Each structure stands twice: as C-alpha cells, then as structure tokens.
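Lab notebook: predicted structure, single chain.

Context: the supervisor wants predicted structures on file for every construct in the current expression panel, including those that have not yet been purified. This is the next one on the list. No modifications to the sequence; it matches the entry in the shared construct table.
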Amino acid sequence: MSPKFTVLALVAMLSLLSSLAGHAQAREGAPIMPLAHKALLLDVAAAGERVLVAGEHGIILYSDDDGDHWQQAMVPTHHMLTGIHFVDRQKGWAVGHDGLILVSDDGGENWRIQRDGLAIQHQTNLETREAAHRRVEELQQRLATADGASDDASDGQAKSNWRLTSTTRASSWRTRI
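Prediction complete. Output recorded below exactly as produced.
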C-alpha cells in the first residue's frame, strides 16, 4: 500500500468519524446559543411567575423577570417545538414536530423526552412490515399446497399454472400465467 493511499484513507476515516460525532452531538439536544432569544419562538407559557417560550432548534427559554433576561433550558432535542404549557409552577410539557412530547418537573429548566413520535412510528413500521412478510409467506405456503392438490388432480396435464415473481429479496408472490 502506497503512503499516499494510506494518508488519503486516514483523512477519509477522520472525516467520517468527525461527521458522525457531529451528528451524534446534534441528536443530544438543543445547542446552547447566546442569541437564542432571537430564534423563531412559536409559543409562550407561564409557570407561576416564570415566563417560558419554545421554538426552533428545540430552544426553550425562561425568564424570571418578565422577559428582561432569558436563560436557555436544557432540552434533549433539536427539533422544532411548537407548543408549551404548564399546569403549575413546576410541571409542564412542550410539543414539537413528528409527535415529540417533552416534560419538565422543575419549572422548565430541564426537559426530558416523554414521547418520541419518530421512534414510535419507526417501530410501528417495522412491526407492520414483519406482519406483511409473515402474511406473504403464509399465502405462498397455501398457494403451494393448493398448487400441489391441483397437480394431483390434473392426470398428467401441465403441472403448474403459477409463476413466481419477486420484486425484492424480502417479499415475493405468485401470479397465474
């Protein structure tokens, strides 16, 4: 292996690792931004005397002096937050795109994910796909059994009127010729 190829491979690997690290960091939570108060903020709520706002990039800000000074909350997402509501001074929820629901028990300073709509949808999609594959296999077995029974009754005529057609490795079906 040439030294030039080794250096190029090393640079490519480091680039990949740094991009993966950046992607993982982006999923950790909303970036702490000095100008977060200038971000697109979509909803406002009160938690006792505290005022809270929520918006883009998972930003939630809170103020204890009627909006003169803002603190950025610790939020475990960078997804758009579209609503925020508190039932008392401590307990509140923020909602966002893709079925995201966050909850806070400390007046909005720290948040945790209560429901991740994307993760739930991904799991539902996997379960639906697996159920569909099981149904296809079941129908293939029934078809093979029915095909075998008609072959026995055909008395030497053509053995099969079915052709196997496949569009993906995971699923296949038969069609009558």
